[in-house]
Task: structure prediction
Amino acid sequence: MKLIFCDMDGSLLNRRSKISPRTLEALIKLEEKGIGVILSSGRHINSLKKYGDMLHFEKYPMSGYSCNNGQAYHDHLGENVFEHERLNYDDYLKVRRYAKAHHYGFIVYINNKRVMFRYNESLLVRLLHLHIPIHGDAIFDKFVFYGRPSFDVKGLDYTCSLVDPYWLEIGPKGVDKGTMLERIARFHHIDLKDTIAFGNGENDLPMLIKAGTGVAMGNALEHVKEYSNAVCDDCDHDGIGKYLEDLLL
Result:
């Protein structure tokens, strides 16, 4: 194994948003052996960097960050190496209209800042939450629909993934964690069979399928488990750490 791709929330991070000491120790030991650790998340690089610091990424050039559900790759020092297509202002207008028509809660992320549109709540609540202006040259991290147990996305020509019940993330069509996994492996001249990925949500599925070994967390959505090669313990019980200890240490 040469590259380890870890989803963050609900996978590498437990429900208190911490990396457990056991899992942290296992990953650092593998980095010392020359194996790269890629933090693969829907988050912006600014939200991931502190976890890379905990894993001492600055010492390990094979490690890095796959950000915004596969839209951008940053190296071990946090420098942007390459990007896929990003969401733009026209995308924002289309998806915002769709959210409003379906009465979905709508969130946009711009440079790790969140703007909420409460189309699923009362007029009074909506009036109480004024929004910062969004300009035509804005480049977006991702869009989110929230607040419903299910979402109708048949009319959206984007990559749409249920991360958790009541939370759906939206990105450019054809861009996902799987396409970025392939691109990072190619960049490091590593065969896909020498990659392993861990995840729990729909947005992790392309990565779990593309990796040589795709491992669903014990707390993953059931259909995510069905498409994975293996299932490890959940995020609150050192799932990633235990699996890697048994496999590689």
